[in-house]
Description:
The chain has about 300 residues and is mostly helical.
Amino acid sequence: MAARGWYGRDGGLTARMGLTLFGLGLIYVVFIGVLIAAGVGAILVLVIAGGFALVQILFGDRIALASMRARVVEPHEAPELHGTIERLCQLADLPKPRIAIADSEIPNAFAAGHSRKTATVCVTTGIMDRLEPRELEGVIAHELAHIANKDVIVMTVAGFLATVAGLLVRMGVYSGMMGGGRGRERDNGAAVFLVVILVSVVVYIASFLLLRALSRYREFAADRGAAIMTGAPAQLAAALANISGTMERVPTKDLRAAEGMNAFFIIPAVSKGFSLSSLVSTHPPVEKRIERLMAMQAQLDSGASIGL
C-alpha cells in the first residue's frame, strides 16, 4: 500500500517553484546565448559552475552543518528533541531526518538536504534554551514542512543559476576590460562590452525578483505546513515573536558569522530595525507571518480548516 502524500501540500508553492525554475532557466539560456555571441567562454563557465552545483546539491547539508559547527546527535544524546521530531514525522508521513545541534547563541533552526530521505534538521543551543517545548515544536514543524515541500532543493538549484550568472558577468567584464585592437575593432569591443553589462544587469534584476518572491512565499507555506502538522499555529507565532525579540541580544559578530545561512534560517540572523537588508530579505516580515498564523488559529478555533 502506497504511503499517502504530505497532507499540507501547497499548490501555490509547487506552481511558484516550477515557474521560478522555468523562468530562471529561460533567462539564463538567453543570457548564455548573448555571451557566446559576444565571444565570452560561457560553456566552460557553465561546466565549472555545474560542478560546483553538483557538490552543493550532494553535500550542501554537510557544508551547512560545518558552517554552523553543528554535529549530528543520536537519540540518547537528545531524547526530547528526537522524540518531538519522530512524533511530527509520523503525523506528516515523513521519514525521520538526521538531527543536529549547533552550539550557537543565535536562536535559530534550519533544514538542509537534497531529498526527504537525506534531510537534516538542525537547531541551535540558543533556540533550545530560549523557547518553551511547544514553541520549539512549532519551529521544528516549520523545518519539516520545508523538507516535505521539497523547496530546499529548489532553492539550491536556483542558487546555482545565480552563481552561473555571477561567474558569467565577471567573465564578461574581464573580457571587456582586456579587449584590445584598434579603431573599429576597439569600438566593436566596447559595444559588445556594454551589451554584456546591460544584459547582465537585466538578468540579475529578473533573477533577484524571482528568487525573492519564491523565498518569501516558501516561508509562508512552511508556516502553514507547521500549523497543519501541529494543529496549533499560535505556538509557532509565539516562537517567531520570541526569536525576533531576542535576536538583538546576540553579539553582532555572531550574527555576521551566520549571514551565509540567512536564506535557510527560520528567521534571518539580523537585528531588528530598518535597514537595506530588510528591503531585500529572503523572508517576509515577522509581523506579517505572526498575523497570518494568528488568523489560522482563529480559523481552527472556529472549527474551520486552515487556508493559505
